[in-house]
Each structure stands twice: as C-alpha cells, then as structure tokens.
Amino acid sequence: MLPMTSINLKRRQLLAGSLLLVLPRAWAASDPPATPVSPLVEVWKSPACGCCKDWVAHIEQNGFMVRVNEGNSAAARHRFGIADQYGSCHTAAVEGYAIEGHVPAREIRCLLAERPDAIGLAVPKMPIGSPGMDGPEYGGDKDPYDVLLLTKNGGSRVFQSYR
Questions:
Q1: Residue 97: beta bridge partners?
Q2: Contacts (Cβ under 8 Å, ≥6 apart) of 34
Q3: CA-CA 20 to 30 A from 24: which of 9, 99, 111, 152?
Q4: 3-state class of 94 per DSSP?
C-alpha cells in the first residue's frame, strides 16, 4: 500500500498532465478568427476631380484599402498598357490588375476571385450612374454602361453590363 502523500502526488501529476493536453485546445478555440486583409487599391487621379474622390469613397465603403496619388492618371494608364479608347478620369491598380474609370467594387471583387489572364477592368469615359458618377447632382439619372475586361492583346470583352 502506498502512503497517502504518494497517492496525492500521483493525482496531482495526472491532473497537471491532463491540463497540458486540454488547455492548448481551449486557448486556440478562444482566439478570435483572423480578419482577412483588404486588398490595397492604388489610385492615380487629378486633385481637383470630385467624381474620382466619390469613386474612392465607394471603393473604401466596400471594404478596400485605398492609397491615392494626386497626379497624372494618363501616365499610369499607359504604364499598365491600357489603350486610350478605354480611358477615363482615374486609373487604379489592385493585386496586379489595372482598373480604369468608374468600375464598381463588385466587379473588382469578381475580378480578384476569378483571376483571369488579363490587364484588368475598365469603364470607359464617365457614364452617369456608375460609382462616383451617381451623386445627387445627377438627379438619379443612369446611363447604360459596360464594365470591360481588358485583354493582354489590346482587346476587350464585356465583363458585366449595367442597364
């Protein structure tokens, strides 16, 4: 028969060993889930352009982080290989893709999810009703427009239509 102190010691060792197995799982379960990092959208725009500022606000409101470069968007557009016919008032880049003009955040998310072999997306010109061109000063008017997927051979195809 073991003395009483030896039994108590064995119980304590057993209890301590059990806790070592259980506690790491309990701590792991109590950690909050990791927050996904929002993609960074880098924008080149004119400092005086109000619709560009409104588009940036639309992108931020849809969960993207934004860095704005006040300057010549035409130089950025050409650096990304976007033909002038697809041009608009601002140019952006996100995760290796170019974004030209008033592209809705929804389409940027689709682009990043699908990851096509392309330059990026464009909404040529400045259609009324597109993000940034949809403020109260436009009286609720909406022009139909297409979001174009810009291909690496200089062409494009409709990525999404807004009617």
A1: 94
A2: none
A3: 9
A4: strand
